[in-house]
Structures are given as C-alpha cells and as structure tokens.
Amino acid sequence: MLAVPQRSRGEVATACWQALGTTVVVCITAEQALAEARVLVEAELDAIDRACSRFRADSELELVNASAGRFMVVGPLLLEALDAALRAAWLTDGAVDPTLGEALVLGGYSRDWSELTHPPARVTAESDADRRSGPPAAAPIVRARRASGWRLIEIGHDPPGVRIPAGVRLDLGATAKALAADRAAAAVHAAIGEGVLVSLGGDIATAGPPVPGGWGVHVTDDHRAGPDAPGQTIAITSGALATSSTTVRRWLKGTRVMHHILDPSTGEPVRPVWRTASVAASSCVDANIASTAALVQGRPALRWLSELRLPSRLVSVSGEVHVIAGWPPDPGSNDR
Q: Higher confidence at residue 335 or residue 140?
C-alpha cells in the first residue's frame, strides 16, 4: 500500500481520520485551507458510501442488487461508478470484474471490514505453503455460479439507470474507492485552488500544484505503516498512485485466511504470485484498475504493464521487486 511519509508533514498541512473502513489522509499546500479541504473530502466520501456501499442496505448499489432483472433508475454518482467498473472489466478482459459480489459474500466478506474477524499478525504474510501451492485446499469457498457476467449489465443514460441479470450481485470495491479519491482531490482543488493529495487506504489522487520536489509517498505493503516500513519512498508531481495487495485486507473464514482479490474464473482468492502491485497513472481509477489486474494476472502482468507503459512496482511473495516502465529503481532493494 501507500502512505504519506512523516517528512512531508513539515511541508504541508495534513489531516488523517478513519472512514469507509480505511484510513483517509488529506495533504494541502495551505494550512489555513485544511479544515475546508476536510469538509469537502468528507462530503465526497459520504456521497460514495451512500451510492456504492455493499455494506449498507439503503445504498443505491444494494437497491440495484436487490432488484436484479429489473431496470433501476440511479443517481449520477452511481452511474459514474458503474461506468468506471465496466470500463475496468473491458480494459482488463474481465480480470477486474464488478460482478463478484456473491463470491465475496460466500467467502465471508459480507460486512464492513472493521467487523470481520482478522487473522493474527503472524499469518498476515504469505506462508511457505502459500508460496508453493497457493491457498490451502481445506475449507474451500462455496463458489458463486453467476448466471451471466459483466458483459450483460445494461447501462442507460436517458433515463440514467442499470439492469443487472438475475443471480448477479455487484461489488464496486475495485474502482469506487479510487473514484472517490479522484473526485475528492478534484473537488478540493476546484474549491480552494491549492495543491492537494488525497489518500483513501493508499489509493492516492492529486490535483493542483505539488509541494516543491513533489509529494513524498512511501510505497509499502500496508498503507497504515510508517516511513520506516520496508518499501520505497518516491515523489510524485501529478496524477495518481494505487497499490493492491493480498497481504493486508485479510479475514478468517473458519480456520482459513482469506483475502479480497478474487480470480473471476474461480470466484476464489487469487493464487499468490505478487504480494503487492503498485501502479502510477493519470487517475487513481486507472492506477487501481491496473494494480488489481496485475494481482489477478500473475507473472503475465509484467509484460502487460510494460506494454501499457504504466510505471509499476511489483513485489513477489518471496520479496523480489520488479520495477517497470520508468518506475524509479530503489538502490537499497533487489529491484529487477
């Protein structure tokens, strides 16, 4: 994941709090504007929660999920989020699939992250058995057989709405949080005119002029970690960064340690090839699409990201680091 290192806090005004089951960080280049920036970001987070949350029965998304087979008129924010999710599926040939909601529920991810039973710290990293053979065979997920996939979702714009096939449950987790980061950064810059960085659980978007030398970001497995955690500190002057990981957002289903990156072909957690995938792009949505797809693709992601010319840093489960397409090398690592 990605975290703003401590050294940046002396150069900019920073606020940090918890929302949407994750850590929110806002940095702005004018201290007197921090309170207003936080209000603007909180408004965007509340809006995305009401539109796209899978964990509140009154969200627009859950109303759509409960009405599978029928056309549902939706608001502009959910429509924007659905367009982003289907674009992600199209760009990745289904590797990032918004119709995995039922598989996530059956796998135990049926309520907010803070309410799940989390594994002890000693098993949050991939074990030797994981590295050799992937997720253990014991206590398998009950697979969710979808009647049809993302290609059969119907989006309308006049009137704005959506129809999902019966048997499908949408989950927009791979794109909605990144969309919120993009929207929040843009809203702050438009209203205040200052440079801003917004991080939602490590999904980072920027807008406006950066601090001198660029925004300092520490790239590591866990966005909650400090600047001394294993990883790499870089600087960005524009655009966005996202990191997807199989080591942080984990929970217990029975005795099995689960994670939230699913293979659409099986409905089960992806077999571990990469521990984390970090990608830089012009928007946080695009960065998150690419980083999530990289975990699903495994080794082929190296070529895929290189061909797309997306600066990326992939860390294998054994700790081997690969940097691609102009991502800066870290002299202190085993970068390849």
A: 335
Cis peptide before 159 (omega within 30 of 0): yes
pLDDT by residue (tens digit) across 2-38? Answer: 555 444 445 689 999 999 888 999 999 999 999 999 9
For residue 201, the one-letter residue type is G
DSSP state letter for 311? -
Long-range residue pairs from 79-83, CB within 8 A, at least 24 positions apart, any chain = 79/155, 79/157, 79/160, 79/161, 79/162, 80/179, 81/48, 81/51, 81/52, 81/172, 81/175, 81/176, 81/179, 82/153, 82/155, 82/162, 82/170, 82/172, 83/155
1-54+173-238, CATH topology level: T-fold (3.10.520)
Sequence-ordered list of residues with C-beta below 8 angstroms from that of 225, at least 6 positions apart, any chain? 1, 3, 218, 231
Report the C-alpha gap between 200 and 23 in whole angstroms: 6
Given a cut of 90, is residue 46 above it in pLDDT? yes
- Dig out the tokens for 185 from the structure: 């950064």
The pTM score is 0.83
| Residue among 304, 306, 301 at smallest CA distance from 327 | 306
Q: How far apart are CA 301 and CA 190, in angstroms?
A: 36
330/62 Cα distance (integer angstroms): 43
Cα-Cα-Cα-Cα dihedral sign, residues 56, 71, 181, 47: negative
Q: Which amino acid is at 68?
A: A
Are the C-beta atoms of residues 98 and 166 closer than 8 Å to each other?
Answer: no
Q: Among residues 101, 111, 105, which one has the least CA distance to residue 174?
A: 101
- Where is mean pLDDT largest: 76-85, 142-151, 165-174, 227-236? 76-85
